[in-house]
């Protein structure tokens, strides 16, 4: 389980430079154009990665695709927590304590907004605690899921400025927006996403889903 880390916030989107008079500064317009293209790209990706369990992501192998969103209803839409977020430095997990509300488990929305990626656990009765994570995607949407890499059994993840969610144990890199594998020994094993609701300033998930959860079978190739 990752240790408590100092809070780090993602870099805010740089403000466009003011237009130059009469013709303008070509360099300034190039910078503004690059920022606009980056934002459009992130938003486009978010449209592909924010749905439920149906639909295939581009460039994903059938071996991986069949497990992406396996715990989500087909009409699930990830909650929106922020505008576009640009990560310019590594952000490590912050430990938070979940509240057991009987049928649900919940954490404050403010914790995820402030820390960008958090770690918490569900104390499953009579079994090993289930590691969980929540983070803000570059699109500003919320991902909540099982923080468990099946082959290496790693529980820690970090956000990298290269646009990846990286496993602290094996170094596997997954697309931060879509959750699809990029490189590493566990790249064909996506993290299991969980459906959540936001109400009263808290993110909540049904404990019944966690009680019935089992790790993905090791039925895909493992290794770089």
Total domains: 1
Tell me the overall shape: globular
Q: What is the fold-level CATH name, i.e. the topology?
A: Rieske Iron-sulfur Protein
- SS-based structural class? alpha+beta
Strand order of the largest sheet: 1-8-9-10-11
Helix count, per DSSP? Answer: 4
Q: Report the CATH C-level class.
A: Mainly Beta
Radius of gyration: 18 Å
What's the number of extended β-strand segments? 13
Order of secondary-structure elements: HHEEEEHEEEEEEEEEH
Distance from first to last alpha carbon: 24 Å
Description:
A hairpin with a 7-residue loop joins β5 and β6. The protein has one domain: 3-layer Sandwich (Rieske Iron-sulfur Protein), CATH 2.102.10. Helix content is 18%, strand content 23%. It starts with 25 loop residues before the first helix and ends in a 13-residue tail after the last helix. With 224 residues, the chain is of the alpha+beta class. The longest helix is centred in the N-terminal third of the chain and has 24 residues, at 26-49. The radius of gyration is 18 Å and the shape is globular.
């Amino acid at each position: 389980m990752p240790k408590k880390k100092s809070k780090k916030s993602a870099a805010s989107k740089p403000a466009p430079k003011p237009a130059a008079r009469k013709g303008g500064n070509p360099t300034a317009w190039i910078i503004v154009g690059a920022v606009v293209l980056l934002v459009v790209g992130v938003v486009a990706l978010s449209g592909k990665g924010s749905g439920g369990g149906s639909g295939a992501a581009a460039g994903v192998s059938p071996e991986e695709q069949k497990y992406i969103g396996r715990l989500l209803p087909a009409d699930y839409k990830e909650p929106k927590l922020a505008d576009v977020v640009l990560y310019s430095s590594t952000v490590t997990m912050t430990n938070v304590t979940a509240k057991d509300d009987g049928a649900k488990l919940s954490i404050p929305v403010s914790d995820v907004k402030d820390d960008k990626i958090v770690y918490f656990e569900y104390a499953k009765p009579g079994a090993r605690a289930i590691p969980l994570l929540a983070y803000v995607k570059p699109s500003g949407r919320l991902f909540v899921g099982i923080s468990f890499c099946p082959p290496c059994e790693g529980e820690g993840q970090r956000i990298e400025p290269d646009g990846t969610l990286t496993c602290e144990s094996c170094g596997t890199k997954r697309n931060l927006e879509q959750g699809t594998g990029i490189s590493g020994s566990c790249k064909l094993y996506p993290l299991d996403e969980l459906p959540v609701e936001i109400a009263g300033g808290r993110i909540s998930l049904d404990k019944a889903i966690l009680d019935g959860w089992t790790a993905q079978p090791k039925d895909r190739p493992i290794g770089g």
